[in-house]
Specification:
By secondary structure, the chain is an alpha+beta fold. It is 24% helix and 31% strand. The strands form 5 sheets. The chain has a 7-stranded antiparallel β-sheet with strand order 5-4-1-2-3-7-6. Strands 22, 23, 24, 25, 26, 27 and 28 form a 7-stranded antiparallel β-sheet that branches.
């Protein structure tokens, strides 16, 4: 009986507290209360003019002010480009900004919105209904950004915000023209920061990925529009969505304003983006197995799998299997994070790099160089390879002769491999991005006979990616004392590539 009495008292106290809180939060007088309750019989005269305002009312009014301030700077973009199948019309969004030092007005948008279009084929619809055409266009494929120079002056330019000051949970507005519906505004929060390694569709060349993720509704047509903070400033450019339906599923991605401003200033000032580079190839599939082998307790940083000669990395004595833990005082999360950090660093700047080498931290200074030098070298090499193929030379097939200290039988005798490329991949049913070593021939003298077959592609050896013959040799040399190695193999038969792990008995 006593327990029942105690329970009744507790329930009564809870009910009283809830009732008291409701009156504190919404202190309605009797007339206001009557206005909310429908009367029966007599005609009702309800007075709702003096209902109290809540924090929701104030927040709603603030959001409306932000939208009102930012909307005049948002534009609708429509362009037409020619394709082998005929003319294609593309629509998207953009935002008007002012150049540094009052150097004029520009529209920032996505490259994929205006690619292969110029001049009159690009129409920019302003907030007041006017339609104008850009006088000049700059593009940067590595970030999917484009800048359009406009010659009007009586328009409103948006201000830049600082994306570095954003935290997960901050409220934002996405603005643009989803499905061609101009001047649309949606509300959401920052769901995540630093999203990288996104697959942005076939033919995408976006290298610098450091996206903000938001649940503010972003749909086709929002591309190029601004992501706005609660001060009405640009903190991102809306670029992509993750969706199963083709529409908004609550996962949108925006390029952070810090990266956008850097690209904008470079394009307007120089007509191109000057990016620094280290001169290394990084491991895109850095795994816990490899991390453990390198005396790490978890996967972190960026693993170097190749150092290119005569580059900043080689001059600073960076080595195979070094793990870059810190760059310029910033902890490196993964390979794409390092790529972004390097790209945003001024050319010729000396940067402190902390690496893990043989289980010990090593600090070196690296003087970065212009990445276009490396791009030019790679372009010439590619042209040379294409020229060789036109002359009838196959794509680097060769037999290996190595480990001469192994007296009787070479471990790779009778094996013929070729470096994978786009042409070979398309013919054999692989994705065009497939890398590794294509198995051209395996005879009975090879230690890999019965382990791998024709058309297989060797992607990894002992957890290390191998993209060419030199990398394959380096891994074998490094692990020559082992009796067996794990191979990661890809097979593209019938256009459906699949992966498997195989054990290669060396002896």
């Amino acid at each position: 009986m006593k327990n029942r009495y105690t329970l009744a008292v507790v329930l009564a106290l809870i009910a009283s507290a809830s009732l008291w809180n409701s009156f504190i939060e919404s202190p309605l007088n009797s007339k206001q209360l009557e206005a909310k309750i429908p009367s029966q019989g007599k005609s009702r005269i309800q007075n709702t003019a003096h209902l109290p305002f809540s924090s929701l009312h104030e927040g709603s009014k603030h959001l409306a002010k932000i939208a009102k301030v930012a909307t005049p700077s948002v534009v609708h973009i429509q362009c037409e480009r020619q394709t082998p199948r005929g003319a294609v019309e593309e629509t998207g969004s953009g935002v008007i900004v002012r150049g540094e030092g009052n150097s004029g007005l520009y529209v920032v948008t996505n490259r994929h919105v205006v690619r292969d279009s110029n001049g009159k084929s690009i129409s920019i619809q302003l907030h007041d209904g006017r339609e104008i055409h850009p006088k000049r266009k700059w593009e940067d494929k590595d970030t999917d950004l484009a800048i359009l120079k406009i010659d009007v002056t009586d328009v409103t330019a948006a201000e830049w915000g600082d994306s570095d000051k954003l935290d997960i949970g901050h409220m934002v507005l996405a603005m643009g023209s989803p499905f061609g519906l101009s001047e649309s505004v949606t509300l959401g929060i920052i769901s995540a920061k630093g999203r990288r390694s996104l697959q942005l569709g076939s033919g995408s060349e976006v290298l610098n990925q450091n996206f903000l993720q938001t649940d503010a509704a972003i749909n086709p047509g929002n591309s190029g529009g601004p992501l706005i903070d609660l001060e009405g400033k640009i903190i991102g450019i809306n670029t992509a969505i993750a969706s199963n339906s083709g529409g908004n599923d609550g996962i949108g991605f925006s390029i952070p304003s810090k990266l956008v401003r850097h690209v904008f200033n470079q394009l307007v000032k120089y007509g191109q983006v000057y990016r620094a580079y280290l001169g290394v190839q990084l491991d895109p599939e850095f795994s816990i197995g490899t991390a453990t082998r390198l005396k790490m307790d978890r996967v972190r940083g960026a693993r170097i799998v190749k150092v290119i000669s005569n580059t900043p990395a080689s001059r600073a004595n960076l080595k195979y299997d070094d793990i870059v833990l810190s760059f310029g005082g910033i902890d490196v999360l993964d390979q794409n994070h390092l790529i972004n950090l390097v790209s945003l660093t001024p050319i010729d700047k000396r940067v402190s790099v902390v690496m893990l080498r043989n289980g010990r931290k090593v600090n070196v200074m690296v003087e970065l160089a212009n990445r276009r030098i490396l791009d030019e070298l790679e372009r010439k090499q590619k042209e040379s390879q294409q020229s060789s193929r036109r002359l009838g030379t196959s794509a680097e097939p060769m037999s290996f002769q190595r480990f001469k200290e192994k007296t009787d039988k070479d471990v790779l005798a009778g094996l013929q491999l070729a470096t994978m490329n786009e042409e070979l991949a398309m013919q054999l049913g692989f994705e065009t991005s497939q890398s590794g070593l294509l198995v051209m021939n395996v005879d009975e003298n090879s230690s890999l006979y019965g382990v791998i077959d024709l058309y297989d592609v060797i992607e990894e050896v002992a957890g290390t990616p191998v993209r060419n013959l030199n990398e394959f040799q380096q891994v074998l040399q490094k692990n020559k004392t082992l009796k067996s190695l794990v191979l990661k193999i890809s097979n593209g038969n019938k256009g459906k590539p699949h992966h498997q792990l195989l054990i290669w008995q060396m002896n």
